[in-house]
Amino acid sequence: MKTFFEGSQFILIVLLLGVQLSTYLLLPYGVEGLVLIAFLLLLLSYTLLRGSAAGLFWSLPYLLILGAVLFDSQFFNRFVKEIEVPLPYMLAYGIALIGLILLAGYIQNQLTDQRQLVLKLQERIRRFTAVDIETGFDNPERMEFEVTAEMKRIDRYGGSFVLLILQMDHYEEFQKLYGEKERAHLLSSLAYKLGELTRQTDRKFRYDTDRLAVLLTNTTVESVEIVSSKLENKLKVHQLLSGNLIDLTFLIGQVTYEPGSESMDYEVLMEKVESERVSYVL
């Protein structure tokens, strides 16, 4: 990162010096000088946005037209009168234009690379931050990884698992009615109760803002009835920080993955469990 900034600063200084020198030399030549400066700044700005290839693409026709005008003014004077800018300055201007565009393209490439690197680092940080702070459960990225790994294990060795999705009904209304502290307390309470209700080998996830998920490993459809009964007894009533008791409503979906389900990938599995959600007052 330090090397990037040092190299970019040097290139940027050279670029600015080249623009300033060009401006200083062309400004005394009136309108012609201003037009040349304007095109120089326009092409450099475009290069900083689109890259050196795009800058060179538009600079070459510009230089060809400029060369044709210069040639006509020097030998024929058919279309334009004699140009006030000296011929050596014009030649130097063309060379400087190409050089400055290459420098601007280099800076644009470096900025693009740095932007992509920052995005990759942010994505890696987001993936490594596997635990949801409010519940202590794993995040959606970790959930996809764990569920996919369990699906592959079932496909290879047999067995089954059940995935439960619990969506808190009227979650946003709850937050508006009771406030942020009660919302955080609700999530913490649900996480604690789910931890008590499930085995240590079961995996818990914060699947979405208002959704919790439980991966019940080595579980059959019949065994889910036991889990559902525990959920009914433990989660149907929530105690607020004020001490008041309220009933909770959930949309619950479940899907069983067994051998022979190889055609079902993670996305299909999630679509199925979401489509089978049923409203429960626990």
Summarize the structure.
The chain has helices at about 1-25, 30-50, 50-75, 85-130, 140-155, 170-180, 180-195, 220-235, 265-275, and strands at about 160-170, 205-210, 210-215, 235-240, 245, 250-255, 280. It is of the alpha+beta class and about 280 residues long.
What does this structure look like?
It contains nine helices and seven strands. The strands form two sheets. Strands 2-3-1-6-7 form a five-stranded antiparallel β-sheet, sandwiched between helices. The chain has a two-stranded antiparallel sheet with strand order 4-5. Helix 1 (2-26) packs antiparallel against helix 2 (30-50), helix 1 (2-26) packs antiparallel against helix 4 and helix 7 crosses helix 8 (221-235). The protein is 64% helix and 14% strand. It is of the alpha+beta class and 282 residues long.
Keywords:
single chain; 282 residues; alpha+beta; Alpha-Beta Plaits; 2 domains; 5-stranded antiparallel sheet; two-stranded antiparallel ribbon; elongated
What is the CATH C level class of the largest domain, in words? Alpha Beta
Poorly predicted tracts of residues: none
Shape: elongated
For the record, give the distance between the C-alpha atoms at the N and C termini, rounded to a whole number: 54 Å
CATH hierarchy: architecture of the largest domain: 2-Layer Sandwich
Q: Biggest β-sheet: count, sense, barrel? A: 5 strands, antiparallel
Q: On the 0-100 scale, what is the average pLDDT?
A: 84
CATH superfamily of the largest domain: Reverse transcriptase/Diguanylate cyclase domain
Spatial strand arrangement across the major sheet: 2-3-1-6-7
> What do we call the CATH topology of the largest domain?
Alpha-Beta Plaits
Helix content: 55-70%
H/E element order: HHHHHEHHEEHEEEHE
Derived structural class: alpha+beta
Number of domains: 2
For the CA atoms, what is the radius of gyration? 33 Å
Q: What is the tally of beta strands? A: 7
Question: Tally the helices: what do you get?
Answer: 9
What amount of the residues lies in strands?
5-15%
